[in-house]
Amino acid sequence: MRREAKKGALGLRQNTPAERFFNGLITENPTLVLMIGMCPTLAVTSSAINGLGMGLATTFVLALSNAVIAMLRRVIPSTVRIPSFIVVIASFVTLAQLLMQAYVPTINKALGVYIPLIVVNCIIFGRAEAYASKHGMIPSFFDGIGMGIGFTCAITVIGLFRELIGAGTAFDIQILGEGTIFGGTVGAYLSLYQPISIFVQQAGAFFVLAFLIAAMNNIKLKVQKKKGDEET
Amino acid sequence: MRDFMSMIRNAFILFFITLVAGASLGVVYQVTKDPIAYQETLAQNKANQAVFADAGAFNELGKDPDAFKAVLEGKNGITIESVKEATSLEGQLLGYVIQMKSRGYGDDIVFTVGIRHDGIKNGTINGISIISISETPGLGMNAGKIIVPQFVEKMALRFTVVKKGQITDSGSQIEAISGATITSKAITDGVNVAVAYYDQALKGEQ
Fold first, then answer.
1. CB atoms B32 and A99 under 8 Å
2. Average pLDDT of A211-232?
3. DSSP letter assigned to residue A13
């Protein structure tokens, strides 16, 4: 029984890089399970590409700030840990923005206004406080990667659904509605689609998020039930 | 006394962390400064070229403060960012490129307006090119496809936005994107200010 308790996500050994990665991606997915970082989840997911870019930028900041905070965890006194964390996080965000401006201007153009908001994304601060300040550098780094990729997947999928239902496009390619890229009979049927524009507006984010969480919970319950059946 | 000492120690550690962070950001800033400036001129040239495909050079013009005040009076959220003259390779004046910033629904929309002034088609809109826009996908983001082409080759003192399908005068009316009236109005108002500035400050010059 005691051995069981030590097991982490997906039955992997705790605090190993792989366990941390799958923990962030599935077991403790920040968006769909922990429900943190809701502001970017609701605000930037009006298209799939925005979600993807925001997710990747967040992953970069999360992984590096987690690693640096874990490295400094014995140096930073607990009374000034919050300002210290903010300084580290804000530095990486500024770094990410400067690099994107210089070398990938197209992505920077699409995400420009959202990048500074990463500083106040509570996933980053939450992981610094809850994990990186108590664990070593390598597991913290992979915790950041896992959480970041989990966040990226979740908001890209939300963005994809909102874009598809609300504007008929997926990654800016017209799939449904007028001007669809599909030809022939399929194209003729698809072009009949009328976009439901509420989905690209703010309210749509709540609808899609709710459905995704419901789907995730459904899968989790089924897995648990299956496990229960096997044990008895 | 011990409390005081630990406070000093904590403050020193925090100071040291901010010092290292600041110094490393300074290094990155220095390294990326030139590439960023280069990317900006690249984007700028592309936007200029987009509204004056036949121009060979663009020269920044001084701003006329009186005309500025007059055309921007009562226009909230609209600014003129720069005024340039477009010349052909032989140095002949073709027209003006006015860069506008106008408050949209999501954020500021930055775009260039090319106004022809070559003695033949004085005052017609040669083209509009959007430099940065972040409006709602499927609605305001379609401005480049729906709103911008409507201005091309038109000449008017003032453009007005009307609902889809209600155009009575195609010379001065712009059909709004349904569901994105704010975006449509932002761009149209910006173009109006650019045209007004042209009339006040540039038209007379030869």
1. yes
2. 84
3. B
- What sign does the dihedral A77-A81-A86-A92 (CA atoms) show? positive
**How are beta strands A169-170 and A173-174 bridged, if at all?**
antiparallel
Q: Flag whether residue A195 sits within 8 Å of chain B, measured between CB atoms.
A: yes
Which token pair is A83?
A: 């300002």
Distance of residue A219 Cα from the nearest chain B Cα, in angstroms: 31
Residue B24 has pLDDT above 90, yes or no: yes
Given pLDDT bands bounded at 50, 70 and 90, which one contains residue A227?
confident
Tell me the helices (H) and strands (E) count for chain A, helix number first: 10, 2
**Residue among A47, A88, A102 whose CB faces B36 most closely:** A102
Cβ–Cβ gap A87/B21 under 8 Å: yes
Q: Which of A129, A108, A64 is nearest to A90 (CA)?
A: A64
Any idea which of A68-82, A202-216, B122-136 has the lowest mean pLDDT?
Answer: B122-136
- Inter-chain residue contact A101 with B25, CB threshold 8 Å: no
Q: Does A1 touch chain B (CB under 8 A)?
A: no
* End-to-end alpha carbon distance in chain A: 16
pLDDT tens-digit readout, B47-80: 888 888 887 788 888 777 777 777 787 778 888 8
- Average model confidence (pLDDT) for chain B? 84
Contact in structure between B159 and B33 (CB atoms under 8 Å): no
Best of A44, A46, A162 to disrupt the B interface (most B CBs within 10 Å) is: A46
Number of residues assigned to chain A: 232
Q: Which residues of A touch B28 (CB under 8 A)?
A: 94-95, 98-99
The two tokens of residue A136 are 């070593």
Amino acid B89 reads L
Q: Give pLDDT, residue A5.
A: 47
Average pLDDT over residues A137-141: 92
- Identify the residue with better confidence: A60 or A15: A60
Ordered DSSP codes for B124-153: -EEEEEEEE----TTTGGGHHHHTHHHHTT
